Amino acid sequence: MVNKRNPAQRRYLIRLMPLMVSYAIILIGVNAAQRGVSISGATLGVMSVLPAIRLVGVMIVMGMYLCEERDEFVRNRLVMAMLGGTGILLAATTVWGSLENHGVVGHPPTFLAFPFWCGAMGISQCAMALHDRFTSPAE
Prior knowledge:
Elements: H1 7-36, H2 41-68, H3 72-101, H4 113-134
Helix pairs in contact: 1-2, 3-4
């Protein structure tokens, strides 16, 4: 099988995979430790932040990929997907915040903002692909 990824995409995956694997392992370990033992104070704080540090790393890796990608079309698509994801996240949090402010819904866990943004970015990518598929090219 031929590897069709360009060098920037390969570096992105090489950087991303260890972060995501270590995120999953650390998250499972921290959750198991907190269920098994009463942890408090600085130890609890450090353990709580450990998984989040990996996700901050993912954000940095995504930014590095955006800077390193030389294909202008691919880079533009990524920027548009990120903007779409940001727009969806902002719209959702604005509506949710209004509902929360009036006591209709409760406060969601804020750590879900980044995963929600990633999902929204994926929805934006799907919308762009559908748009491309069903519109004729500009003449």
